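name: query_chain
kind: protein
chains: 1
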Amino acid sequence: MSTIIAFGEEQRRQPLLQSTPTSGNEEELAAFSSPNEPDALKLTLTDSSQRLLSLDVFRGLTVALMILVDDAGGAFPSINHAPWFGMTIADFVMPFFLFGVGVSISLVFKKSSSKPLATKKVILRTIKLFLLGLFLQGGYFHGRNNLTYGVDVDKIRWLGVLQRISIGYLLASISEIWLVKNVMVDSPTAFVRKYYVQWIVATLLLSFYLCLLYALYVPNWEFQAPSLTLSTNGSHTQIVHCGVRGSLEPPCNAVGYIDRYLLGEQHLYRRPVYLRTKECSVNSPDYGPLPPDSPEWCLAPFDPEGILSSLMAVLTCFVGLHFGHILLHYKGPMHRVLLWSISSFTLLISGFGLEMLGIPFSKPLYTLSYMCVTAGASGLFLTVIFYIVDVKHFRKPVVLLQWTGMNALMVYALAACDIFPAAVQGFYWCSPENNLVDGMESLLQAMLHSSKWGTLVFVLIEILFWCLVAGFLHMKGIYIKL
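structure:
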């Protein structure tokens, strides 16, 4: 998924972007394209020929961060997702993915030889990415410590991480193909004229989201509570009392209501983050037993990658598009750093300002304040990485992340979705508990005399392992993509 840059001599009084001939195969899936493909995008910049590595490093950092928070979050609840309001390090992973997709899309579709053909390829890749997410996160695989597989289609989870990325990829790509004006960018005004329609669309998406979030009436609703929480056998119908508009609390928000109405309660995520709130866990912010006076909605399903919140998440892709457009149209590395920094800090300040005005940070709802802060942080991280890697050329310290970013899809599927660890656990000695994965983690915990720190070291070794696997594939010229 890397972007290749070819540098040439700067010419005075030329347009800020030199358009180069493109092949009909440039419309690759921006989220997971490989560095050595014949259709890799080439830009015209300055100095000697070399590839822009910061996107690879940024992508690799995101995947490594996902493995860290997913596998070590149970031992360290402070880095796990915030129970409902607020943000932790884990809450930046999804926006980082979406932001990176947006940057890549702006480069891949800088010039399309055929808009209908490009659109067709985008739709096909969106479908493949969505189906892959459904296969990995729909419930078919049961994860570590569970040597079974299979899912009741009547209860399959329709949405997930890759499904959300596919939605963002689709809308951002279509806007880049069809809504960009054919304007030569030789001034800031021309830059605005070229891309203003995209931002009108982004504003309409934001307005649609805010109208539904704050104006949609959420009635009372019911769900089937698991039998393990009740004294009676079998499931039991629980009624959640709402009858409100504009609520951002777990039981009565419009995001959950739309998912229940359109997808059905049985197709939503069964272990939502609000199970770790004080109302629902005696061990909050970690999972734990229900308090004696816990509300009825604690065991209700809720999808963190729901329909309405995914529409809002598309805006993070649009922010990534903006950063990619700056990369395309401004040749000077420090000029890019300056413009990226201004954009990043503007978003960060806006996000914290909105939070002070009463719009809380919430990843499950993907609130406006959360979108601004996480998109600003994404841009700031990319700016720093770009300065270190592509401006100052300090590359050896981040080569492991670079390799991981080049095979991000493979590492995500096998590691972050627990496919590989679960497969290794299938080989055990006498008892399923005696397997290589659990044995190594237990050994580290015993050596360090700490369950928490043993788990953390195990996860860091796991990340290193996947970096080396990705490096081996890179040296062999193997890149997994859709």
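note: Residues 212 and 254 are 7 Å apart (CA to CA).
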